[in-house]
Amino acid sequence: MTMEPVTTLPLVSVISPTYNHGQYISRCIGSVLAQTYPAWEMIIIDDGSTDDTAAVAAGYAEQDDRITLVRQANTGIFKLAKTYNKALALAKGTYVAVLEGDDYWEEDKLDLQVKALEAHRDAVLCWGQAISTESETNEVIRTYPDPGSPDSVWFSNDPPGSIYHVFLFRNCIPALTMLFRREVLVKTGGFRQNCGLPLVDLPTLYEVAREGKFIFIPQPLGTWRNYAGQMTKVHTATMMEGCRCLALKYINDSGVAAAVGSSVSLKTIRRYYDRQLIISYSRSGRYKLIRKEFKSARKDYLRSIFRYGFHEPVWKIRSITGYIFSLFHGNVEGLSRFLGKTSYA
């Protein structure tokens, strides 16, 4: 197959925020360089890394003028939208992709997505499956989302807004697979961050979902690593609290309410998040034990045990076990491995 000249292809702007991803950033950048679709620019925003992330990225930028490195003082994950929007202001592409510094893509990712969006002008976003791997072993944990799941009926957001049936409970869209029409992203206010969330994808998607259909590609487009020190693990309970905040906020929005109708009630949302918060605080306690943050782990375990009702008894038992381990600085990972639970997921 003959590829069009690069100058005639729509430009894709790849936004890559990164912080202390020195051991991962080469794989990330390399996966962009390996794309079969050549018309891209990569804007790397280094958020004050204290390791060699910026130096590694600078080396690639010197070798390929499609790569731009911007260094800034550390603003942190709770001001992530500011970092993303700094990159968006620099972006010149027709389309905008997201690839954080510890993730990487399949080589045909952009080619598949640009073709899909060019063929469907009423679609505002293209996305697909992602592979989650264990960072230390590269063991595949799962490929998600499942195209055969009950949620899949909403994956194409057709009619626009119907994917709120999913968003009110979970984000089914892996951030590293998102490819936006830039004009729509700008129209809706760029990348958003609210409800105390240490992420931008779900708040942004809530707004973009109003604007048009989505295209779901049912195959893996990239991989993200799973490890105890990543931000989604450090802030796992905070993220669930924020998702609940978003759901309670948007269920009162007239457009969202009209899209989901009577199929989603405030009571259903509250009950769902009570269950999820029991699980999230239990998991957060585990991650903190791994990092030897024993006092903080006990606080999370206590929240899991005594708050959010009498749901999820198995997780409450896990939290009781974790709490006991935290008192004696025990090796909860040894117990987890004994029970066959080796993943940080």
Outline type = globular
CATH class membership of the largest domain: Alpha Beta
Distance between the termini: 40 Å
Q: Tell me the domain tally.
A: 2
Backbone CA Rg:
21 Å
Helix content: 40-55%
Which range does the strand content fall in?
Answer: 15-25%
Largest sheet: 9 strands, mixed
| CATH topology label of the largest domain | Spore Coat Polysaccharide Biosynthesis Protein SpsA, Chain A
CATH architecture of the largest domain: Alpha-Beta Complex
Uncertain segments = none
Task: Furnish the topology, listing elements before pairings.
Layout: E1 12-18, H1 25-33, E2 40-47, H2 53-63, E3 67-72, H3 80-90, E4 95-98, E5 103-105, H4 109-119, E6 123-134, E7 140-144, H5 164-167, E8 179-181, H6 182-187, H7 201-208, E9 213-226, H8 231-234, H9 236-250, H10 254-260, H11 266-290, H12 294-306, H13 313-327, H14 332-338
Parallel strand pairs: 1-2, 1-4, 2-3, 6-9
Antiparallel strand pairs: 4-8, 5-9, 6-7, 6-8
Task: List its traits.
345 residues, alpha/beta, Spore Coat Polysaccharide Biosynthesis Protein SpsA, Chain A, 2 domains, nine-stranded mixed β-sheet, 9 strands, 18% strand, globular
Describe this structure in words.
There is one protein chain. This protein is an alpha/beta fold and 345 residues long. It folds into 2 domains: 6-227, Alpha-Beta Complex (Spore Coat Polysaccharide Biosynthesis Protein SpsA, Chain A); 233-338, no CATH class. It has helices at residues 25-33, 53-63, 80-90, 109-119, 164-167, 182-187, 201-208, 231-234, 236-250, 254-260, 266-290, 294-306, 313-327, 332-338, and strands at 12-18, 40-47, 67-72, 95-98, 103-105, 123-134, 140-144, 179-181, 213-226. Strands 1, 2, 3, 4, 5, 6, 7, 8 and 9 form a 9-stranded mixed beta sheet that branches. The protein is globular.
